[in-house]
Amino acid sequence: MSLPITAVFALGTGIELYGLKFVSDSISILNTVSLVMFTFLIGIVISRSYGKEVFEKMQRQLKSREAPGDEALNGAVMGVASMLLITPGAVTDIIGILIMTPLTRGIFKKIALNITKDRIQTGQPYFFFKD
To answer: How far is CA 24 from CA 35, 56, 93, in A?
Structure first.
């Protein structure tokens, strides 16, 4: 189990380094570092503001005895987007921005919902690691 995870992290790191080199060759190293820092700050702001907003909406829905399914899914997807923006790299930033965009967020919500449904139907509640 640890070999595929290690391979994914190694491949992802290589892709990120190649992406950062490509961007730095195009717009200079200083601008690339500034862009990475800017997306880091955007990720922090989104995680703090949007996370608080989603939590409050979920509390209101629970108080009115409604299931906060869509809000929970939206919050999880936006949480992933903010984590991707906080992670330095060109590819993760592009994916994070795509998730944040309202036009493409629905696609990522459907993907997350399908993964969750498949895991529940097959009886695998673990999304990443077992104990």
So the answer is: 10, 40, 14
16 vs 57: CA distance, rounded Å? 35
Q: Write the CB contacts of 42 (distance below 8 Å, at least 6 apart in sequence).
A: 85
- Residue labelled with tokens 């108080």: 63
Q: What is the token pair recorded at 118? A: 């498949």
Predicted TM-score (pTM) of the model is: 0.76
Tens-digit pLDDT profile for residues 1-48: 566 778 888 888 888 888 889 988 999 989 988 998 999 999 899 888
Q: What gap in Å lies between CA 7 and CA 48, rounded to an integer?
A: 32
* C-alpha dist (Å) from residue 87 to 39, 50, 78: 9, 18, 14
pLDDT above 70: residue 130 = no
Reading the block at residue 86, the tokens are: 């906080």
- Give the span between the Cα atoms of 108 and 100, in whole angstroms: 10
